[in-house]
Fold ATP-dependent DNA helicase RecG.
Amino acid sequence: MTRRELIQRLARPLERELATGCRDRVVAGGLEKLVHNLARPFPEVIELLEGYAALEPDARCARLREALARLGVAAAPARAPAKTQAPVEEPPATELDAPVDAIPLGPGGPQKMRSLGVRTLRDLLFYYPRRHEDRRTLPGFAALAPGAKATVVATVLSKSQVKTPRKKMLITQARLADDRGHKLTAVWFNQPWVMGQLREGEKIVVTGRYTVRGRVRNLAVEYFEAEGGEQLSTGRIVPVYSLGERMSQAWLRRSVWRALEAIKEVPDPLPEELRQELGLADLDFALRQIHFPESEQHLARALERLKFDEFLFLELRVLLTSGASALVGQIFEVREEDLCTFLDALPFEPTAAQRRVLDEILADMRSERQMARLLQGDVGSGKTAVAAAALYVAARNQKQGALMAPTEILAKQHFANLTRYLWPLGVRVELLTGSMKAGEKKRVYARIESGEVDVVVGTHALIQKEVRFRELGLAVIDEEHRFGVMQRRALLQGRPDVLVMTATPIPRSLALTLYGDLEVSVIDEMPPGRKPVKTRLLTQRSRKDAYAFARKLIGEGHQVFVVAPLIEESDAEVMAEVRAATELAGEVAAMLPEARVEVLHGRMKAEEKDALMERFRNRDFDVLVSTTVIEVGVDIPGANLMIIENAERFGLAQLHQLRGRVGRGGEQAYCILIAGDTSRKTMQRLRVIEKSTDGFYVAEQDLKLRGPGELRGTRQSGLPDLQLGDLTSDVEIIESARSTAKRILEADPYLTEPEHQALKRELQLRGEAVGLREII
Ligand code: ADP
Ligand code: MG
C-alpha cells in the first residue's frame, strides 16, 4: 500500500465526520478508535485526535481540519447544519435496557441472573432455550406403555424415603395422581435432595421410564420439575434452558415470561421495508416465539429471523472493519539461508502443503501489511512445525514471538515442540503459565522485557499487564476461539503479525464468508507414513466387542479414551453431567476389571482437568472416561483407541476431531463408534466417518447430510456471536445476510442514515461478541 493510498483511507472517514457535523457518529465504536488503527503511519494525526469523543463539536471540527491539513488533504468547507441531513439522533434507550431486576426474580434472583451473564431484560430475552419439549398433550397414566419413556403431569400425594438394607441405596418415592385420579409411584435412586424439592399437593412434570410389575406401577424418574402456577410448563411447547447453580427451569421460564410481559413491543433494528422484502418475521414475534412457541411453524419462523440477525451483524462487522485491514504491521527480512538452516535442522521433510503455506506466511511477513492469516489443517497435519519456521524468521529479525494456547497442558506441549525445533538453532524459548510460582514468573517477565527471550509460549498468562515485550513481531494463536476478544486484543497491542492456527475444518467458501478478508491457508496433506485411524461403526448390541478390544489393547500396554455426549434427557439438572460421567465410568470399570479408570467431566475446574490429562499422559492410568470433549489438541502418545458412545449425538466434524486424539505416538490407532440408534439416517452419517479420514471431506458431507432442526448447532465454529446459527447448515441464511449487509453498506457506508440508527445501535450492543477480523 502506498502512502497516498494510506492517506486516502484515513481521510475518507475524517471528511465524512466533518461533513456530518462532527457528532462522532460516523464510526461504530467512535472515530478515535478507527483513527488509532488507520493512522499508525501518521502519529501526528493520532496525537491531534486524542480524546476526540470528549471534545465539543466545534473543537472537534477544528481538530479534523487540522488533521486533514497535516495529511495534505484540503478540507471541504463545512456545510451549514441546515443543509446537512436531518440531525441524527441516538435512538433512545428502550425498556429492553432496564436492569433485569425490573421484574420480580425472587430471593437471590439477580445474582443467579448474573451468573448466566444476564444483566438486562434484553440479555434475558436473548438467553435462548437450548431446546423445546412438546408438552401440548401429556398422556394420562392410563395411556402409558410399559417399558417406554414418558412425560406426565401429576399431583404429589405423598412422599417418603427408604434405604435398602444391603445395597445401601437411598430410594425416594412419591405417590402421584393424574387429573383422572389414576395413581403410580415415582422413584428416584440416590438423590437425597429430591425429598426437599417435592411438596405434597403440588403439581409436577415428570419424565422417566414407566414399568409395571404385577400391580406395582412405577416411573423411574430421569427428570422432573415443579409445574408452577402459570401453566408455563405444561399444555404448550415448553422451553428448556441451560441452567446455572441453584436455579430451576420453572424459575427461569417464569422470569422470561415476565420479561416478555413487561415489554410491550421489542423494537426491530431491521427497517420494515427490508424485512418485508426478505420475508422475515419481526423481532418481537421472533423473541416471543423462540421462548414460548405457539406451534412448530412459529418456532421455525422465529429461528429463521434470529439466525439471520446473527449472521447479518457478523457480516456487517466484517465489512465495516475490513476498511482497517490494510494496517501497517511488521516488515521481516526473510533470508534464504535462514530458511535452509531451519529446514535442515527439522527432523523430517516438510510436506508440499507445509511448504506452500509457509511460503504464503513468509510473503505476508515480508510485506509491510499486517499479517492476519488463518492456518487451517487437520489435527496432526503439522501446523506447529510451520509456525515454528515463522517464529524462527521473526527471531532472526531480532523480533520476539509469542505462541498462545488455550490450556496449560497445550502450552506445555507446544513449548516442548518449539524447544525441540528452535533450541538447537540458538533461539531462546520460554514457558509462561498461570500456575508458575510468582518468583519464576517475575524472572520470565524480566527476560521478556529485556529481550533475552526470543519466543514465549504460554496461556492467558501471556497477556497479563506484567508482560511487556521488548518488541513483539509475531503472535501465533492456537485454537483462537477459546480466547475472549479483549484478551487477544491485549496481546496484539503492538501490532505484531498474527497467525491463527485451527484444526476446525470449515469448508473454504464458508471460511471466506466468515472471516471476510482474513487470509486462509490450508494444509491439506498429512505427513507421509501417518497411519490413518482405523475406524469401525458398531451398534449397541456389539458394544461388548468394543470393550473386549479395549481390554486386549490395555493388556498390550496401551491407553484408551471413552467419550460420551451429555445425556440429553437429564442434562438440565446441575449434577446430571457429573452423575452420567461417573455412571459410565462405573460401567466401563466393570467391563474392564484390570484397568485403572478415571473420569473427566465439564464441571471440573480447568486446573483439575489439566492435572488429570497430565497424569493420563504420564500413563498413571489406562482409561479416561469423558463426557466433555477432550481438551482439544492434547497429545497422549500412549492412547491408541477411542471408543465413542452414542456417537450419533456428535457432529461429524467433531467426531473427526475427537478421533484425531489417538495414534499420536505413531502406532496404529483405532476408533470405535457406538451408535445409540440404528436408523438409516444415523448409520449413513456415521459411515462417513468410518470410511474417510479426510477432515474436509467429512465437513462437506456433514454439511450435506445434516438436516436443519437442531436448535443449537454443534458450535464447532467457536464464533462467540453464533448462538443459534450454524456455519455448516445455514449456508442460505449466511448468503442472504451477507448480500443484505453489502447492500446496506453500499447505500450507507457508515450507517449514518436515520433508518439505520437502530441497526447501528444493535451492532454496538453486540460489539463485544465480535468476529475474529476485528481485533487483528
Ligand atoms: P498439528 O499442530 O497440525 O496438529 P503438529 O505440528 O503438532 O501438528 O505435528 C504433528 C506431528 O507430526 C508432530 O509429531 C510432528 O513432529 C510431526 N510432523 C509434522 N510435520 C511432519 C512431516 N512433514 N513429516 C513427518 N512428520 C511431521
Ligand atoms: Mg497442534
